[in-house]
Amino acid sequence: MLAARRVRRGAPARGQRPWGPRRALAGAAFAVALVAAGCSGATTTSTPSGSPASSSARAASGASARPSTAPSPASTRSDTAAASSPRLATGATAGRANDEAGLRRLLDRRAQALADGDAGAWIATLGAQASPALRSAQAQAFTNLRRLPVTDFGYTSVGPVSATDRVRVEGRFSLAGYWTGTRTFTQVLTVQPPSAPGQRWGIVGVAEGPGRRQVWQLPHLQVAAGDRVLVAGNVAQKELQAYQRLTQQAVDAVSSVWDDGWSGHVVVVVPNSVADFRTLSGLGTGSARRGVADVAAVTVGPVATGVPAAADEVVVNPDAYAELRPDGRRVVVLHEVTHVATRATTTADVPLWLSEGFAEYVAWSTVPVPTGQVAPDVLQRVRAGVGPTALPDRAMFEDSTATATRAYHEAWLYCRYLADRFGRDQLVAYYRAAAQPGADDADTRAAGAAIRVLGVPQQRLVGDWVTWLDDLARQGA
Asked: How far apart are CA 342 and CA 139, in angstroms?
């Protein structure tokens, strides 16, 4: 699943541009307050850590609890095959059926070439008819893969070869030292079958298959690697290093709050265009194809019920992120890193209001900005007698920019209220309890956790929160 953070709107950032909704909001709630307040800091946004994809601006798909890289703020969990050699599906054309093993061997040689760092052997898997452009592109792909700490790269399944010599292949890879799990990828290869005994299969065309694009598929990839933070992208090395420093600071800050069981490893991907952001985040196609102009960052990665996220990455929207001031950028990165931490150490989804609200709470707790500048929309509605009477639901997070931004603000204010009343450690304990797997849905589990950890029924907590908001609004916060 995926979670995204939106850039806040309502307050001008650089160039007086309004912030945007969360999810596709690159730190929407966070950024909005910072930018709107005209603070020296910038506004930021991020997405829930409990959805397949989670973004710091609340990704356009709407952040969600537990990884929701979904075009729902978090990425979908998916099991990756662990076959050591590709499985060839039945259906190859009759003339080639007797050499299916040859195609498998071709892909095995390709994976071995990468493991050995043998560029010549990698290029040798191309057919004699491969164009100079393909040879150049594959040389770049090999270089990209070798620049990253790629491990466990291999092809797990091979579809039938079509009458036009095309075949869909699926593979997997991991990043040593940063991920404990693997990601899958899909490609459509055009192959050159052997025309005589003793000849080998060769690749004469490579196209990306459906699904998210992987970091190593970016052109002109650069990498900045540290002990715990890996930043990769097709931007200048100096820019990658700046992201690395900011992310390391965020890791330290988040670790001080969420300090039990998280390794602190984070992967950040920084493309140089919104088009690349769409394909890397998964927000560019299908039901997730919404506006992403306000999404500053999103956390995406495969997730499966009952298993912690093990291959998350934070993908940055370069245009939305550039609109933020320094504090706003800090908030967005903190929000996303919080999602990475919670997703990596919990095994069940939590409601979006908890995943997004908690990430907002951690991020905003490091920036000294008045509440009224962070969530003016909510407090204005409270003063007008139309403030929230219930926690924001998923529909609010996935609605229009203004509604989604308000949902993030309400979620933040609720988590802040819980921390003020019970203490930060109890808020963390409450989140962890709500993220325990069970037969009930996320909302029911969260309600049960409220009684077990906080000792108060959730309905009463919400009522007390509404009263707290009234007092906050009257105080002119």
From this structure: 38
